[in-house]
Amino acid sequence: MCAAFNCSTAVMQRQHFARLRSSRTVYSGVLNMAKGFGFALGPKMINKKSLLVPRKISPKLPIPANIKKPPYGDSGVFPPWGDMPQIQGSEGMKRMRASGKLAAQVLQYAGSIVKPGVTTDEIDRAVHKMIVENGAYPSPLNYGGFPKSVCTSVNECVCHGIPDDRPLEEGDIVNIDVTVYLNGYHGDTSSMFLVGPVSDEAKKLCEVTKHALDEAIKICKEGVPYREIGSIINGIADQHKFGVIRDYVGHGVGQQFHSAPTISHFRNNSSGTMKLWQTFTIEPMLVQGSTKCKTWKDKWTVVTEDGGLAAQYEHTILITPDGAEILTKL
Ligand SMILES: [Co+2]
């Protein structure tokens, strides 16, 4: 699960939308005119599926009494952003490997039930059941009040999609983002799944995003600047004319769900280098069109402003002296 970049980014985003409101009116005028002339322009051209709309969300699922909850489990209050990197000792490493492995197993299982007609709510229920049966807590549940146990982000949804009663349709692409809290440690991973045959462009977007994540992981090791990650990912996105989302970032992970460092997936000049035995996520979001996002009234669902498709892959990694161990790979 990615983190919002920072407060100032959010403020800038709001100001941007205020500015955009006037230009959008002009844009929709052009769109209608274009339709009148019999050619398509705008989101429909980019994303051939009809756009998502808010739908019914089922009640939060219960957590058995024996499961240890994270600090926000009952309150639903956002925990403070940890401003220190999370560096593991031998016990922490052992537990991170266990939570990473479980997250990967749950993600694989969730992907196996993806098919046309299955609702994202059904995926949520399956994920929730498997996580608690394995003695863990589904980290997204009640994180800042998030109502479900997993994020499911379909088509133009960039991240933080809330599972609901929409049945998956042939041609959809869906990101399933699983985080588990096992023995006091979070393991965080996500992947795209294709629903039946999808358009070549959608498939390519998914493949390039996965490739960008894999290549970024390859350069990670002790002492490498974090900004190298953004440089690799942005370079690959550029080659294929895809955009990189800037408002949501990877993050330190461990005993805290989200902490420093913020891992930007776009070209940047941020300071800081990777520390030995540090755990963090890399989770690039690539888009077909505009990299501008908007958030629904539910305060979670993030979609591309122009309705273009978005894809995301995520791993939790451990920095070692000569590379990175992927903790969420089976
Ligand atoms: Co994450």
TrEMBL record:
Its cofactor is Co(2+); Zn(2+); Mn(2+); Fe(2+). It is an enzyme of class 3 (hydrolase). A divalent metal cation 1 binds at D177, D188, E314. InterPro entries: Creatinase/aminopeptidase-like, Pept_M24, Pept_M24_MAP, Pept_M24A_MAP1. Binds 2 divalent metal cations per subunit. Has a high-affinity and a low affinity metal-binding site. The true nature of the physiological cofactor is under debate. The enzyme is active with cobalt, zinc, manganese or divalent iron ions. Most likely, methionine aminopeptidases function as mononuclear Fe(2+)-metalloproteases under physiological conditions, and the catalytically relevant metal-binding site has been assigned to the histidine-containing high-affinity site. A divalent metal cation 2 binds at D188, H251, E283, E314. GO terms for biological process: proteolysis. Signal peptide: none annotated. Substrate binds at H160, H258. HAMAP family: MetAP_1. Cotranslationally removes the N-terminal methionine from nascent proteins. The N-terminal methionine is often cleaved when the second residue in the primary sequence is small and uncharged (Met-Ala-, Cys, Gly, Pro, Ser, Thr, or Val). This is Methionine aminopeptidase.
